[in-house]
Write a structure and sequence with these properties.
- Helices cover about 90% and strands about 0% of the residues.
- With about 150 residues, the protein is mainly alpha-helical.
- Helix 2 runs antiparallel to helix 3 and helix 3 packs antiparallel against helix 4.
- The radius of gyration is 21 Å and the shape is flat.
Length: about 150
């Protein structure tokens, strides 16, 4: 965890140094915010993992007969993890887009890049919605099966 944090901080510092020379403080701020979001997501994932481990241990210690419940819980946790991963990917894409925008700024192609950004954002939102629906459907189906 600490190592990850350190790595993120280092990247942020490097980016800031680079931007200071280019005089683009706004972009720097945005990038830093993105980094912070990434860190938060990482923390969430780690917490989820810890919780899963704890649950499994407790279940194993107390009851060995109830396997269905554990399976359902595991499925749910897996879905959550998938969602987290998707979020991380989204953040990474956003970062990449920001970098691209900075590059384009130097070439004076602001309008073009803004349009591209808007398009990308829309696409990402659509993807996220699709993934959410699929996950929900899968979870519901699994729960129904387990109940039967």
């Amino acid at each position: 965890m600490m190592l990850l944090m350190m790595m993120m901080m280092m990247v942020v510092v490097v980016v800031v140094m680079m931007m200071m020379r280019m005089m683009m403080m706004v972009v720097v701020v945005v990038v830093v915010v993105m980094m912070m979001m990434m860190l938060l997501l990482l923390m969430m994932v780690m917490m989820m993992m810890i919780i899963i481990m704890m649950m499994m241990r407790r279940r194993r210690r107390t009851r060995r007969t109830t396997t269905k419940t554990t399976k359902t819980t595991m499925m749910m946790m897996m879905m959550m993890m998938m969602m987290m991963m998707m979020m991380m990917m989204m953040m990474m894409m956003m970062m990449m887009m920001m970098m691209m925008m900075m590059m384009m700024m130097m070439m004076m192609m602001m309008m073009m890049m803004m349009m591209m950004m808007m398009m990308m954002m829309m696409m990402m939102m659509m993807m996220m919605m699709m993934m959410m629906t699929v996950m929900l459907n899968v979870v519901f189906k699994c729960s129904k099966l387990m109940i039967k």
